[in-house]
């Protein structure tokens, strides 16, 4: 990707430089000329459309503005113009604007510099052209240049401004809203690269006066500029006198389809006077063809006093749409969802479409709608990779697809080495540089260390950007699956290994959540101060790139050490949903170093109580539950909910050896069940979770559990409907220990040999057809 910054409404110039990875910025001085004030009152008024355009779901385009030098009235007018544009375009990542209020001199009212990056995204109309960075961010769904404004708008503080928002400036006033709307139009991409060589820097091609040139690669704007005879402007010899003549001929036109339609089938004419004016020529609609008062006059190069234009006009809308901007008044299907989810925990899906009037959500892409509201949720009972499809307005052409990978929640204790999968950990960052699972060979420092001292944690690990540096002004979050610690006894430790090769202003820490990820708290304090900080814990009390939070910072690019971090987490266990995340933050000095390599993530501690094993079956509209209770328990309570985070008590009875209960009035859709055993001293333990939705749910018994020297597996014939059945047993690290298969319709009553098995925790998986049940088996010492 390549990046350049250009000044428009005054076009500064610098040739693009070949870069690798995400783009670095090249900053140019403010442009020479901007939107010019004529000083001539025009007394024309084009107000903002009465209702504006609002997107279904209340999700307008988003802008973030940083103001410098503005008074309250000027800032309010600027923000009004921003809000007007927010109703026009459809973007998923906030467009960032640096707004500067200062004397510009002369008759210049405002000017804009913007950042462009090359893009080969499938949404790019011309692959490899230079596009406004805000547009590329919308396509990729993240900020490719975090910490850098997408555009900088300069307003002349010496101007007699009208700061009202009613499009009614006085005869000696310039309408500030109009100027800001004009400059934002440039920032969105109304910016060409062609220029005329006058023999004097910076307006040079080869230093030969009278030649014209155009950038390679072209700006996307350039791709739609033609001469009178329909020749594309980038088809001319570059540089050449012929190109210079074309851009000063008075006969340049915009050729994109939607803009031509908006102009009644005629190519809109561009401003191309005989004398080339940098920043004015080539980058505006023609003033004569679209004079003051014309509905399409916002992007002409001159503005009179008493002239107000608060509507972009359909030609400009068409130009932006053809350059790749999704418009808010064009129906578009869109939604975002986490790439990773977990069994029996609801995933939220929120519509982000434009002009949606109806919704059809298909969470398994099987052609059957599962929900028909704008915002909804869905719970997956089994792990796997699922495609989610949203269709709006009943139109097959208006669809959006995303993929979600569903993992089981972990059993305690566990150790993740990430050799074959992410193990359910997921990046939750909002920048394009993020935690990625991969091989460290793309990291020069880590790779050198591997060669000198051996591999770190196998062939795969989590890296801050697997193929390059960690980036500047980035924040990464690596989040674990939810962990059920109910019944935890003894000491528990969160542990992982990491290597540090980050810039001096970077930092990293660990956070935890007890409310499903809604709020997060930093885990622990400094090594040597926090008594729970076991080994290699935080080094620094406050790190700017972490928002002042404590964390790790080693003050150098690379310390050459494998850190084995460990923290005692007893204070936050005994909760049903504990989540951890590793937060990495980099400041402005970063972007030239590898970052962090993280591996061997685990939680050590005693095995959680697991004496009660719940079994379930859906049949004839009822849900049948059965379990063996702990004889020492006083009562057993059936907990039920639509997902594992919303369980409430629905039935209670005294504990007995074998127990069962039938839910004759289950919830609509998915039902998640769990047994809570309460003991005479008030303590409690919980069973495994069982999710019941469809008839094809297994009913089987694997007992006793905990086991010592014998284990039996039984399943009635009618529970399988003739499907083959498979039992698999794994270690907690995922190694397959044993596998058994049965076919036919007969009942199963099988002995599972335990000879040679070590005491400890094992995982089981029972599968019949598409129905899968998972659980934990505890083998006690003999």
What's the gist of this structure?
It is built from seven helices and 53 strands. The chain has 782 residues and is mainly beta.
Description:
It is a single chain. With 782 residues, the protein is mostly beta strands. It has seven helices and 53 strands. Mean pLDDT is 84; it is low at 1-30 and 51-59. The strands form 14 sheets. Strands 1, 2, 4, 5, 6, 7, 8 and 16 form an eight-stranded mixed beta sheet that branches. It is 9% helix and 34% strand. Helix 1 crosses helix 3 (176-187).
Q: Helicity level, as a percent range?
A: under 10%
Radius of gyration: 32 Å
The rough form would be described as: elongated
Global structural class? mainly beta
Q: Based on DSSP secondary structure assignment, what is the total number of beta strands?
A: 53
> What distance separates the N and C termini?
63 Å
Sheet of most strands: 8 strands, mixed
Instruction: Average the pLDDT over all residues and give the rounded result.
Output: 84
Low-confidence region ranges? 1-30, 51-59
Total number of helices = 7
Strand content: 25-35%
How do the strands and helices of this protein lay out in sequence?
Layout: E1 3-8, E2 35-37, E3 44-46, E4 63-68, H1 72-86, E5 95-102, E6 108-118, E7 130-132, H2 133-140, E8 151-156, E9 161-162, E10 174-175, H3 176-187, E11 195-196, E12 212-213, E13 225-227, H4 241-247, E14 252-254, H5 257-262, E15 269-270, E16 302-303, E17 307-309, H6 314-323, E18 335-336, E19 340-342, E20 347-351, E21 359-362, E22 375-378, E23 384-392, E24 399-407, E25 414-416, E26 426-427, E27 435-438, H7 444-453, E28 461-464, E29 475-479, E30 492-501, E31 507-513, E32 521-522, E33 533-535, E34 540-543, E35 549-551, E36 562-568, E37 579-585, E38 595-605, E39 613-619, E40 622-628, E41 635-641, E42 648-654, E43 658-663, E44 671-678, E45 684-686, E46 690-692, E47 701-703, E48 712-715, E49 725-731, E50 736-742, E51 748-751, E52 760-768, E53 771-779
Parallel strand pairs: 2-16, 3-17, 4-5, 5-8, 9-10, 19-24
Antiparallel strand pairs: 1-6, 2-6, 6-7, 6-8, 11-12, 13-14, 14-15, 18-20, 20-22, 21-23, 23-24, 25-38, 26-29, 27-28, 28-38, 29-37, 30-36, 30-38, 31-32, 31-37, 33-36, 34-35, 39-40, 40-43, 41-42, 41-44, 44-45, 44-46, 47-48, 48-51, 49-50, 49-52, 52-53
Helix pairs in contact: 1-3
